[in-house]
Amino acid sequence: MPRRGENIRKRKDGRWEARYIAGKDENGKSVYASVYASKYQLVKQKRDEAVRLLELENITISQDISFEQLCHSWLKSIKHSIKESTYAVYLNSISNHLIPYFKNINLKELKSEDLDKFIGVKAEEGLAASTLKMIFILMKRIIQYANKSGYCSLEGITFPSIRKDSKVSRIMSSYERTIFERYLGTLNSSFGAGIKLCMYTGLRIGEISGLRWEDLDFESEIMHVARTVIRIKNVQHNKNDMEAKTKLVVVSPKTADSDRWIPIPSFLTEELQKWKGDDNCYVLNGKEAPMEPRIIQYHFHKCLEKCNMDQFNFHSIRHGFATMCIEKGFDMKSLSEILGHSTVSTTMNIYVHSSMQQKKLQMDRLGV
């Protein structure tokens, strides 16, 4: 029976349903939406939160707009022009970093010094330089949106430069690669063959997760990187909700350059063919649903343990591949395209590390 005046009722399946006005149709008639929860208080709180967010989304730019309202207005303006995964990343950064810090600052009085202080606070919290850089990109776009909307003029704001992370990811040595490859061979599985494919093509963890057998052309010995798998924040989740906070999505690659064709090393073709399944099945597990990145990372660490090796992040495989290619004389343009980078400088600055052995060889040339 509905709670009087609240539009809340208990359904036959035991769940509580709360309805609220989500907007108007073209005839001016109210359009309703519903939220659900296991308890009355939870569904009421969930409904109230949905209404609050709706109000933030539907604000009209005015002189009284808060920073939080400005952020939600900007998010609404871009929501349908970007991927769901990108939107989730933006929302997470804004909710966790920008709004908590800047919500009490009057936008018209925002100064460059405020951004300097923001960097200091976030650096002390341990945020990586790459994360700070991405947050500042969002901040610039939000300020540009405020200027364009005529709310305020923040043209004088300057953004301080952010130092690159000085820490370089350690990659496997030649000896460690050999030991690890031998162990992968003993697994006698498509998982082992798939990880070895990453070691010789530099695929990202989400890309190998999303690789299906239909993407591999064994006759031409090439593969198509057509999708990536990531776990993102569920933007529909409410803190009092019973639904998952995150969800797994299969999306197009990271950028246009990441959608690419890569040659498969000939010595891997035969090993991969042994495990070929149906075209719509995924390479790593042979199933119609992908093995998600955190599970891949887990099994990768287990393999390292079996080899009695130090722990590496899965992404270090990509770093190691790029470095190995440079050591073997790859031209930078080809390597950049294989990795899916838009520029050669990205490849050089981020993914290429000289090994101590390579440095020694270069130093020994001084005596020749």
UniProtKB/TrEMBL annotation:
The reply to whether Cell division figures as a keyword in the UniProt entry is no
One of the protein's GO biological processes: DNA integration
What GO terms are given for molecular function? Answer: DNA binding
Q: Where is the Core-binding (CB) domain?
A: 65-147
**Record-linked CDD domains:** INT_ICEBs1_C_like
Q: Which UniProt keywords apply?
A: DNA integration, DNA recombination, DNA-binding
* PROSITE patterns (UniProt xref): CB, TYR_RECOMBINASE
Asked if the keyword Protein transport belongs to this entry, the reply reads no
Give the matching Pfam families.
Answer: Phage_int_SAM_3, Phage_integrase
Describe the location of the Tyr recombinase domain by residue ranges.
Answer: 170-364
What does the function comment of this entry state?
Site-specific tyrosine recombinase, which acts by catalyzing the cutting and rejoining of the recombining DNA molecules.
PANTHER family, A to Z: PHAGE INTEGRASE-RELATED, PROPHAGE INTEGRASE INTD-RELATED
Q: Which family does it belong to?
A: Belongs to the 'phage' integrase family.
According to UniProt, the name of this protein is Site-specific recombinase XerD
Q: What is the lineage of its organism?
A: Bacteria, Bacillati, Bacillota, Clostridia, Lachnospirales
